[in-house]
Write a structure and sequence with these properties.
CATH architecture of the largest domain: 3-Layer(aba) Sandwich
InterPro entries: AARP2CN, Bms1/Tsr1, Bms1_N, G_Bms1/Tsr1_dom
Number of helices: 28
Structural class: alpha/beta
Helix content: 40-55%
Largest sheet: 7 strands, mixed
Protein name: Bms1-type G domain-containing protein
Subcellular location: Nucleus, Nucleolus
Number of domains: 3
GO molecular function: ATP binding; GTP binding; GTPase activity; U3 snoRNA binding
Radius of gyration: 38 Å
Bound molecules: guanosine-5'-triphosphate
Pfam families: AARP2CN (PF08142)
CATH superfamily of the largest domain: P-loop containing nucleotide triphosphate hydrolases
């Protein structure tokens, strides 16, 4: 019993009050909290700003946020999940484009990519997918890539410097709407001297800024480890790619377009057997961007021509966002990548089928079995097994077959095959021509600019350089192409007068103090630290910071203007034809009307302007002027001369002027209307001449000459009297 009594008397453990945490805070709030909180709130120093500069910064920041809010919001037309963000990796040959894509894919998906072909879609975040595309090294591929890029990664060989490919691509992007651009320096491990490396980085960064814009992002990939870029630098780059916001480009938002990541020939094999050049039916797969596409819309396939759509079907997303993937079955884990052309991704959704790709190691085939089987049968492998084996080996048999047979969007197609395509699409011939013409234009411009080059062996000794610099018509282009033989191949270096290639020793000492602080930051961050160099850039001359490569745009545009349809078809410059025509007109006009000679300067100029409005038009395309110089539209006379051509002007006056010109022509024809028909050999004489000849030949002619001389003299006298 005693123990029972003892248990009854045992004192209860006292309740321990909470001294910290939510409960304690709650209690103190309930109790005398009012005073404490009030006391805290009443402290005036706690909420006042201490520094005027900080206050100013805060104020300007809030004003900026307010301003941003006031901007017209960009209409988001997308329905459901946004399509993947297209990242185009561009750079000169052998700069490391494929390697960078492989490394980024490995970073995002932990998958090894054996080859980079076609677009590669990877999931880069909870609500974001990225599609990597390698930009081909030819100009047509660049044009195609520039049309679809949301972000362009410009790879630059740090050990060599800027090459022309980069500027050509920038130039093309400028035409198609400039997407986001980031620079990536590779091959930096070739520098043995740390100081030189730092100087080169600095120099390339400044040039990159001045060519694109101040503060443009430039990443450094400092070298390879086991044949791959370092994880830390890739991580930084991937993070930037993941967070970057695409610029809404108005043209793209208003037009539907598709980056094809897979295609299939669905032409019945029988019709192909009967006619190898029959019209093919092709199914193209890809994410639709821009806006919705309608059936029967005319579409342009780059490099192939214009076609009409026979139908559009929406399919299951082959690379869904992680959130969407959970809703569907069939997959045990999330598939974070889709690259059918590169042989990555194991589930394919077709219009009418779903293909599941099973890896070889998951299939129960063992070598011992095979050997046994062959022994048992006494002759080769069983037909059934070998059939299954071959089926297993060919992952995308149809695609691969197609790939070998034709359309290759990015310029790898063999010449013979391309001929086939154009032959089979005779009805779309016009479109093909226009596409080629377009390409020609740019090629023309390119060859024009590449006239301006020098050829040299890749060596540090500049004396060996054979520097041939020709000037593009009137426009001096700052950027110069220097072709040199380097690392076993020809490279086109982009030389700028404003940026020296070699690092000046004197400069390097000077600048070192600036870089010392920022250099490490850049190395560790893998990105440009803006603040460090802002001041240095501010002090730069403004003209230096303007994009130099843009200057060549005008020259290119002008050079492109001269190419006309006539020139392309007949191989003859329409410009020349027209100019010679106008020259002859001029000379005849000079001869015929001496009146012009006695017209005051200003008036004469005006009259000339009038005439030249018609003269310097392209014969075929009136939107083109072939004269290289643009008119001086500040000239009052010139403005006056076209005033009547607008809605507000006097149209009848303009028409009268036209009639006057025609009448003058007739007059001229009367006097100089003789011509010889070269085909028939018939000589036509003008009426005046005929009359003169009929009425007594030379005598009459003399009279005419005399008459004209008298007329001239009279006019001269009149002129002198009016304008002494
Ligand atoms: N040392 C060094 N080698 C590199 C670096 N980046 C790429 N490479 C090597 O350069 C070679 C070319 O790389 P790729 O990725 O094939 O270059 P690419 O630009 O795709 O080449 P193309 O497709 O032919 O234009 C490979 O052997 C890479 O290992 C780098 O930063 N340092």
């Amino acid at each position: 019993m005693a123990p029972a009594d003892g248990a009854g008397e045992q004192p209860h453990k006292a309740h321990r009050q909470h001294k910290s945490g939510a409960k304690a805070r709650k209690k103190s709030g309930k109790g005398g909290g009012g005073d404490d909180a009030g006391g805290e709130r009443k402290n005036p120093k706690a909420f006042a700003f201490q520094s005027a500069a900080k206050a100013k910064r805060l104020q300007s920041r809030s004003a900026e946020i307010e301003q941003r809010r006031l901007h017209v919001p960009v209409m988001d037309r997308s329905i459901g999940e946004p399509p993947p963000f297209v990242v185009v990796v561009q750079g000169p040959p052998q700069v490391g484009k494929s390697l960078l894509i492989k490394c980024l894919v490995k970073h995002y998906t932990k998958q090894n990519l054996s080859e980079v072909r076609g677009p590669i879609t990877v999931v880069s975040g909870k609500s974001r997918r990225v599609q990597f595309v390698e930009c081909p090294n030819d100009i047509n591929g660049m044009i195609d890539a520039a049309k679809i890029a949301d972000l362009a990664l410009l790879l630059i060989d740090g050990s060599y410097g800027f090459e022309m490919d980069t500027f050509e691509f920038l130039n093309i992007m400028q035409v198609h709407g400039f997407p986001k651009v980031m620079g990536v320096l590779t091959h930096l491990d070739k520098f043995k001297d740390v100081k030189k490396l730092r100087k080169t980085k600095q120099r390339l960064k400044h040039r990159f800024w001045s060519e694109i814009k101040e503060g443009a992002k430039l990443f450094y990939l400092s070298g390879l480890i086991h044949g791959k870029y370092t994880k830390r630098e890739l991580h930084n780059l991937a993070r930037f790619i993941s967070v970057i916001k695409p610029i809404p480009l108005s043209w793209r938002m208003a037009h539907p377009y598709l980056l094809v990541d897979r295609f299939e020939d669905v032409t019945p094999p029988e019709s192909v057997r009967l006619n190898k050049k029959c019209d093919r039916k092709i199914t193209l797969y890809g994410y639709l961007r821009g806006c919705n596409m309608k059936k029967r819309t005319k579409v342009h396939i780059t490099g192939a021509g214009d076609f009409s759509l026979s139908g559009v079907t929406s399919l299951v997303d082959p690379c869904p966002l992680p959130s969407a993937a959970k809703k569907r079955g069939l997959r045990d884990k999330e598939k974070l990548f889709y690259a059918p052309m590169s042989g990555l991704g194991d589930l394919l959704y077709d219009k009418d089928a779903v293909y599941i790709n099973i890896n070889d190691h998951l299939v129960q085939f063992s070598k011992t079995d095979e050997n046994d089987a062959s022994k048992k049968q006494g002759k080769g492998r069983d037909v059934g097994i070998s059939l299954v084996k071959t089926l297993q080996n060919t992952r995308y048999s149809l695609d691969e077959k197609l790939d070998q047979s034709f359309i290759n969007f990015f310029g790898r197609k063999p010449a013979a095959q391309s001929e086939d395509i154009s032959a089979s699409q005779n009805d779309q011939g016009d479109a093909n021509i226009s596409e080629q013409a377009d390409g020609n234009d740019i090629n023309n411009a390119d060859t024009l600019e590449s006239n301006e080059h020098s050829y040299s062996e890749c060596s540090s000794d500049s004396e060996h350089e054979n520097d041939v610099t020709t000037q593009l018509s009137d426009h001096e282009v700052d950027l110069r192409e220097k072709v040199e033989f380097c690392n076993g191949r020809l490279r086109r270096k982009a030389v700028s007068a404003n940026f020296k290639d070699e690092v000046d020793e004197e400069d390097s000492d000077e600048d070192d103090s600036n870089i010392e602080n920022s250099g490490d930051d850049q190395l560790s961050e893998g990105s440009v630290s803006l603040d460090d160099n802002e001041e240095a850039l501010d002090s730069d001359d403004e003209t230096e910071n303007t994009s130099k490569w843009k200057e060549s745009l005008l020259a290119r545009t002008l050079s492109r203007r001269s190419a006309s349809l006539m020139q392309l078809v007949y191989g003859q410059s329409s410009m020349k034809l027209d100019s010679t025509a106008s020259e002859t007109n001029d000379s005849s006009a000079e001869e015929s009307s001496d009146d012009e000679f006695f017209v005051p300067k200003g008036q004469k100029k005006q009259a000339k302007n009038e005439a030249s409005i018609f003269d310097d038009m392209d014969a075929e395309d009136y939107s083109k002027f072939f004269k290289a110089e643009l008119r001086d539209w500040s000239d009052e006379d010139l403005i006056k001369s076209i005033r009547d051509r607008f809605v507000t002007g006097n149209w009848s006056k303009a028409a009268l002027r036209g009639v006057e010109i025609d009448e003058n022509k007739e007059d001229d024809e009367e006097v100089y209307g003789d011509f010889e028909d070269l085909e028939t050999g018939e000589v036509h004489k003008s009426e005046t001449y005929k009359n003169a000849a009929g009425n007594g030949g030379a005598h009459k002619q003399n009279d005419l000459v005399e008459e004209r001389t008298l007329k001239k003299l009279a006019l001269k006298a009149k002129f002198d009297a009016e304008y002494p």
